[in-house]
Specification:
338 residues; single chain; 3 helices; alpha+beta; Neuraminidase
């Protein structure tokens, strides 16, 4: 009997070792501990520094952007922007494929009455420490008139900048900027799709195949298809004091949600199924849409048969089968001895 128990124990250890990494890869949430950050309104995962998130205050703070360590919640750098005007209502931050951080001074608490808003851009620092950097300021106008907005997104492949308005006829809308932002005159953003949410932030997945938009109490995720969002459905949102921000983790498998207030929490919500970006579902090979190769996906973008198993599942099944065979063999051995 002792041999049988040992075999069963071995089976449990093997199964745990097969299933464990899926849980080990899930990031933890964190608390922003910096007393200077009282209205964290935007959140963006750093490209240059894994585990670090950029954030900023909503208003009345000055030209500052903070780099926060996701493992401790400690601020590891405060960047002061020079070469720009006085920030008015900073609402969003995003990191582009060009190595720059984009800051959206795009809020309008007067309900969309300012005739223009601003975007600031500065290079993501190679080393994280308090510093003053020269930023580029871009004037922004909307083709259909002023809008209140809180979400700015930079596509991780094309580098194109998008803004989602907070309210328009009860919902929001996604606006597309010019192919490249310029400083010679206003940059006109044009409406490309309705977004039926009271949008407080949004983000592209790292591979650019998914887009998430959040509101105070909900969120929706979209497939990015031919330069337009295709609604997939709702996605979980944690209960927060005032839901303000969202970003993908660098692997695209988890959303990190932020909130305003002192010592505000940043909470993870894992994605699954069609919510996952293509690079998080595939292997990166020639048939992975995110790799730029050919795709066997059908017109709905869901792939061929839809029955492909994840490597971790296959591994776990094989280990369980081996453990079961071991237990059966030990039981037969005990019968022969008796």
């Amino acid at each position: 009997m002792r041999s049988l128990l040992c075999a069963a124990g071995a089976a449990g250890v093997l199964w745990a070792s097969a299933a464990g990494p899926a849980f080990a890869d899930e990031p933890d949430g964190f608390t922003i501990g910096d007393p200077r950050i009282t209205e964290s309104s935007g959140l963006a995962a750093s490209r240059a520094h894994p585990g670090v998130y950029w954030t900023h205050n909503d208003s009345d703070d000055g030209p500052y952007v903070y780099a926060v360590d996701g493992s401790s919640g400690r601020t590891v750098a405060r960047i002061t922007l020079r070469g720009i005007g006085t920030p008015r209502d900073v609402e969003a931050v995003s990191v582009g494929p060009d190595g720059n951080v984009y800051v959206g001074d795009i809020g309008d608490n007067l309900g969309g009455t300012w005739n223009h808003v601003w975007i600031y851009r500065f290079p993501e620092p190679a080393k994280l420490r308090d510093a003053t950097v020269t930023a580029t300021q871009f004037d922004v106008v909307y083709a259909d008139g002023p809008r209140d907005a809180e979400a700015l997104l930079v596509h991780p492949r094309t580098g194109r900048v998008y803004i989602a308005s907070k309210k328009q006829g009860g919902g929001g809308a996604l606006y597309e900027g010019p192919r490249r932002l310029g400083t010679a005159g206003p940059n006109t953003f044009r409406k490309v799709a309705p977004i039926d949410l009271w949008v407080t932030d949004g983000a592209f997945s790292p591979d650019g195949t998914r887009l998430v938009m959040r509101s105070y109490f909900g969120a929706r995720i979209y497939r990015w298809q031919e330069g337009r969002p295709k609604d997939i459905g709702s996605v979980g949102v944690p209960i927060q004091q005032q839901g303000e921000s969202v970003t993908f983790t660098p692997d695209g498998r988890t959303l990190m949600y932020g909130s305003e207030g002192r010592s505000s929490e940043v909470s993870p919500v894992g994605l699954s199924g069609e919510q996952l970006p293509e690079s998080a579902k595939g292997t990166g090979g020639a048939d992975d849409p995110a790799s730029g190769g050919s795709s066997a996906d059908g017109p709905d973008g869901k792939g061929g048969s839809g029955t492909e198993l994840k490597p971790g599942v296959v591994k776990g099944a094989l280990v369980l089968a081996a453990a079961t065979a071991l237990v059966v063999a030990v039981r037969r051995l005990l019968r022969r001895r008796s």
